Amino acid sequence: MIKVSESAKKKIAELMADDGFNVAQDFVRVGVKSGGCSGLSYDLRFDKSKEQEDKVFEDNAVKIIVDKKSFLYLIGTVLEYSGGLNGKGFVFNNPNAQRTCGCGESFSL
């Protein structure tokens, strides 16, 4: 399961509305792809539909979909949002990551 912090929920709802999505019915697609300075990078985007093999979660009134392959890397992850002076944006707190890069956008196992 993937958790969504309160700060991430607020920012997701705001960004979804700006992009013509509805947080009550549309999805946040979270995935992992090859690349980044640590080997794997996170992928976050909005989606109106899910694929048959997708895992679906809902936490903090946000619907999350994850493809089957990415799910193995993301179990237990908490999606947070940091909008402070450092301007990080969305942050993935992934307990499976053994090493992360300085920007927090990539990781390795």
What is the strand and helix layout of this fold?
Elements lengths: L2 E2 L1 H13 L8 E8 L5 E8 L7 E5 L2 E5 L1 H7 L3 E5 L6 E5 L5 E2 L5 E3 L1
Parallel strand pairs: 1-6, 2-5
Antiparallel strand pairs: 2-3, 3-9, 4-5, 6-7, 8-9
Q: Report the C-alpha radius of gyration, rounded.
A: 13 Å
- Count of alpha/pi helices: 2
Number of strands: 9
The poorly predicted ranges are none
Largest sheet: 6 strands, mixed
The SSE order reads EHEEEEHEEEE
Shape: globular
What gap, in angstroms, lies between the N and C termini?
Answer: 18 Å
Task: Output the structural class.
Answer: alpha+beta
Strand content: 35-45%
Helicity, in percent? 10-25%
What does this structure look like?
- The chain has 2 helices and 9 strands; from the N terminus they run E-H-E-E-E-E-H-E-E-E-E.
- A hairpin with a 6-residue loop joins strand 6 (78-82) and strand 7.
- With 109 residues, the protein is of the alpha+beta class.
- Strands 4-5-2-3-9-8 form a 6-stranded mixed sheet. It has a 3-stranded mixed sheet with strand order 1-6-7.
- The relative contact order is 0.25.
- The protein is globular, with a radius of gyration of 13 Å.
